[in-house]
Amino acid sequence: MTSLPERAARRCHNMVNPLHSAVYFSPALGKELAPYGIDDPSAVYLAGRAAPLGAASAGTVTATFYNFSHALVARFVPAVWESASPATVLAARLRAVDSMLRELLGDEAVSSPEMTEAAQLALKAAEACTRPGRPLYAANADLPVPEAPHLAYWHAATLLREHRGDAHIAVLLSEGLDPLEALVSHTASGRGMAPKWVLATRGYNQQDWAAAQERLRERGLVDAGGELTEDGMALRKELEYSTDRLDSGPYEHLGEAGVARLTELAGGFAASAANAGAFPEDLFGKD
Q: Which domain of life is it from (predicted)?
């Protein structure tokens, strides 16, 4: 393994992750699951992301997703598996990814040499991901790699995303941030989801949000206006640096040149997807 320029791994992840995440904002997954009676947006998300775990319980999904209200999860899990088995959901997810990528990027980009190269690089990085203590990564790692390069790229992006996500949860726990405190402080940093999206998708209400802000205020992490204090900004930076340390293996394995090339290719795909409307314009921000 070789050391990389500072934040190179994080920048690479930030370019690779959007195409993984886009499927949960695309109508394609809902269309694929609707015939099985899975049509609530929360049920679609929970089923689509949890399916690699098998017929998981509500407790398992809450634990591994971390920042969702358990009450929201329990509304749909495990009942969702009575509508469609995890294997059925996984097949539907892959069909949704195919149609989404073709719509966002176009058939030419999907079948391009650049897509093949990106898939090869991302899969090489994922070779150095590790299973212990990383349940969502490990569950996805047990799935076969799709043959089509664009689907293989999405699969690899998913592995890299869940590998980092599992590590980030460990860091949040070590710093004593509960699920909603993590979301509130991330939003206050200007990089997290806007409050309206957190409340609409994570199963919390305004009272929950205010209570989390108050807990953060008591710790000196946000001020009376809900903005991060110096201690709060320092904590958010440390959270990311600690996550970087736990997630360095895949990118060190890929090497500096490979990371730079994957960042370039992934950045192009991510920009094209964003320009095609992959994400709501008001998804991120403090308002």
A: Bacteria
Q: Supply angle C-alpha 212, 218, 219, rounded to 5.
A: 95
Q: Which domain holds residue 54?
A: 8-174+240-275
Query: Phi/psi class of residue 66: alpha, beta or left (left: φ > 0; alpha: ψ in -120 to 50)?
Result: left
211-234 pLDDT tens trace: 999 999 999 999 999 999 999 999
Model pTM score: 0.96
Closest CA to 258 of 162, 164, 123: 123
Measured CA to CA, the distance from residue 23 to residue 116 in angstroms comes to 20
* Helix%, strand%, coil% for the chain, nearest 5: 70, 0, 30
- The gap from C-alpha 52 to its chain's centroid, in whole angstroms, comes to 14
- Looking at the domain assignment, is residue 194 inside a domain? no
